[in-house]
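dumping this here so i dont lose it
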């Protein structure tokens, strides 16, 4: 299983969520964040972006990455970042069900 974390422009968020939903990927966490990158100005020292976090099976990670990159990339500074990390275990707190564990 993989954890995919994407920091994207607020203008890209709805397009990404809709595209993932069309592929059956609906479980994700979205937060509004402030960040400081290379494009810092005197009057606006930080930029507001959205962070999308989602757990996906290894077999779907490349598909999700391609969707996010395709919709979030404008070629301009401030497009954001994307990270893919391995996950050892995911457990539903409500019923303690192990969704996927390598332990």
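and the seq i came up w/
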């Amino acid at each position: 299983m993989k954890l995919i974390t994407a920091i994207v422009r607020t203008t890209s968020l709805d397009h990404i969520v809709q595209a993932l939903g069309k592929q059956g990927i609906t479980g994700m966490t979205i937060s509004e964040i402030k960040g400081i990158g290379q494009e810092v100005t005197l009057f606006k020292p930080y930029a507001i972006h959205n962070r999308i976090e989602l757990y996906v099976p290894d077999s779907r990670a490349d598909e999700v990455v391609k969707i996010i990159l395709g919709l979030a990339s404008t070629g301009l500074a401030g497009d954001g970042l994307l990270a893919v990390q391995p996950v050892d275990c995911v457990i539903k707190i409500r019923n303690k069900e192990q969704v996927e564990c390598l332990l």
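The chain is about 25% helix and 40% strand.
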